[in-house]
Write a structure and sequence with these properties.
With 520 residues, this protein is an alpha/beta fold. It has helices spanning 2-22, 169-181, 206-211, 237-254, 281-291, 298-314, 347-364, 383-386, 411-432, 455-465, 494-502, and strands spanning 36-44, 46-48, 53-59, 67-74, 89-92, 98-103, 115-124, 129-131, 136-143, 186-191, 217-221, 258-263, 325-329, 370-374, 398-403, 435-441, 445-446, 473-476, 483-484, 506-507. Residues 1-19 form the signal peptide.
Length: 520
């Protein structure tokens, strides 16, 4: 019994000592604190139009918790405009040391120079994460202009871009050469140059009297040719005008010049007027509608087109070839001084008339020596407005603009405005593989209206050449007994006009390339 008691006391003692050993007075250490530093660097910069940049945010060690990082965004590039929107904070997942922020470039097709995106780290949600001295990084967006391979119209492909794929070889060559000329030059032309003169001083064209060369382009009109009073008799004044006009066009072709015809078509009810103010209200409101297919005067209109076709197909040069012409029907339609103006028809009605005119001449009458020009006045400042009544690429060869207003004592401001408008059609012509032209213009000088100093050598020249516009020709309206649009010898602005015609790129008849043959 005594031995058993001693053994029990020994076991209790050992248990007590072990218990005391396990509950030592030495305190436990705190859990290890996770600390890290964070920095931002630029992975790579970007460039317009399609090379993106990138920032990289780096923790010095991975953490067991998510780290939220806030930052500010600055720089000359605009967040959400020059690049896709970047938020002002990110979350770095746990057990991760890096996070990338892409700078996705938004191409704006503008030349702006190099721009920057700057991110500066400001705070985190973890007091144990220290922002290092490398707290700011910059991505540069380099402004690399888009290099677009220049389109070159090949002679053998020209027909595919024309309204009439069955055009005569000479008409195809005219399209090709006008397009080619517009790259570096512009042709100077005038309406009725062989048949209308200042002070009725007949003989050589007024431009030839002044410069020594005829204009490079002759403007004519189908108005008298299609007049109701033209009965085809040799004694008839209107028929005589037809003979003069067609003879002038043939002479121009034989000289290598370009021919363009407008059409001041008289209203179809009485056949008296083309200016809306001279017509009755009924005539103004119904004239255009009445010549559309199904209209009361549609057959009358087809008869006029028959005459246009007859005359165009009857003009033959000394080489035995049909004379190519540019036909510019229903011009200045964005004004309302003509009965085909915007106040007297809808856009759809105008387009229908233009399309029918082309289809009837090309398909029904098989007129194959004609290019078709579309020419509003200067009442547009955007591509959208210019194209409001555009009949379509398959109906238009030449994109034109008539413009008198911007040269009516408007100085360089007006010239710049006209140049901006030409830039719109020049860009469209490049895109559509068409020809751009200043189809009608001028400033009329009379005994009571003085010339504008430097009108030609400064204002017109800058209009036709600034901003890399590609304009094939400019046509001034006709001189007559009482006034002129192009100066004649002895007038105070003759020297200015001569200087204009001698400037780089300006072409008169004696400087024209062969407009009616394709290069080999």
């Amino acid at each position: 019994m005594k031995k058993n008691l001693i053994l029990l006391l020994f076991i209790v003692s050992i248990t007590f000592l072990n218990s005391c050993s396990e509950s030592s007075d030495t305190p436990d250490l705190d859990p290890q604190i996770e600390t890290a530093t964070i920095k931002i660097t630029t992975s790579f910069s970007g460039s317009e139009p399609a090379t993106n940049g990138e920032f990289k945010i780096t923790l010095s060690k991975s953490l067991s918790t998510v780290t939220n990082v806030s930052f500010s965004i600055s720089g000359s590039a605009i967040n959400g405009t020059d690049y896709e929107t970047i938020a002002s904070s990110i979350s770095i997942p746990k057990e991760t040391t890096t996070y990338t922020i892409p700078v996705v470039i938004i191409e704006d097709n503008e030349e702006e120079g190099d721009e920057t995106v700057i991110i500066t780290l400001s705070s985190t949600n973890n007091n144990n994460v220290t922002i290092s001295a490398s707290n700011k990084a910059i991505v540069t967006i380099e402004d690399k202009p888009v290099v677009i391979e220049e389109f070159i119209l090949l002679p053998e492909e020209t027909r595919s871009y024309m309204v009439n794929p069955n055009a005569t070889d000479e008409t195809v060559a005219l399209f090709y050469n006008l397009k080619t000329v517009s790259k570096t030059s512009f042709i100077i032309g005038q309406q009725d140059a062989f048949n209308s003169f200042y002070n009725d001083n007949t003989g050589a064209s007024d431009i030839k009297k002044t410069t020594g060369s005829d204009p490079g382009l002759l403007g004519s009109d189908f108005m008298f040719i299609t007049d109701d009073n033209n009965n085809g008799n040799s004694s008839n004044w209107f028929y005589q005008q037809e003979q003069i006009i067609t003879a002038d066009a043939i002479e121009a072709y034989n000289k290598g010049m370009v021919n363009t015809f407008c059409w001041h078509l008289r209203e179809p009810y009485e056949g008296d007027h083309f200016y809306a103010d001279d017509m009755t209200e009924f005539q103004r409101e119904n004239a255009l509608k009445s010549i559309l297919p199904g209209g009361a005067n549609h057959d009358y209109y087809k008869g006029k087109l028959d005459k246009v076709a007859e005359v165009t197909k009857g003009m033959v040069g000394s080489d035995g070839k049909l004379v190519p012409i540019i036909f510019r029907p229903f011009h200045e339609f964005d004004g309302s001084w003509f009965w085909w103006g915007k106040n007297y028809c809808t856009a759809a009605e105008y387009i229908q008339l233009y399309q029918f005119t082309v289809e009837y001449l090309r398909d029904e009458k098989q007129v194959n020596n004609m290019l078709f020009a579309f020419s509003p006045d200067n009442h547009y400042d955007s591509e959208i407005v210019y194209l409001e009544r555009y009949p379509g690429d398959e109906y238009v060869d030449i994109l034109g603009m008539d413009n008198y207003g911007d040269f009516n004592n408007q100085g360089q401001t007006g010239a710049n405005r006209a140049n901006s408008r030409l830039k719109i059609i020049s860009d469209l012509a490049i895109d559509k593989v068409k020809i751009a032209a200043l189809t009608e213009t001028g400033y009329r000088v009379t005994s009571g209206t003085n010339p504008i100093a430097n009108l030609f050598s400064t204002y017109y020249y800058s209009t036709l050449t600034n901003n890399d516009v590609e304009i094939s020709f400019v046509m001034y309206w006709n001189n007559n007994n009482d006034g002129y649009y192009t100066p004649t010898p002895g007038t105070s602005d003759a020297a200015d006009f001569i200087e204009f015609t001698n400037k780089e790129g300006a072409l008169l008849q004696n400087e024209l390339p062969d407009m009616y043959n394709l290069p080999n």
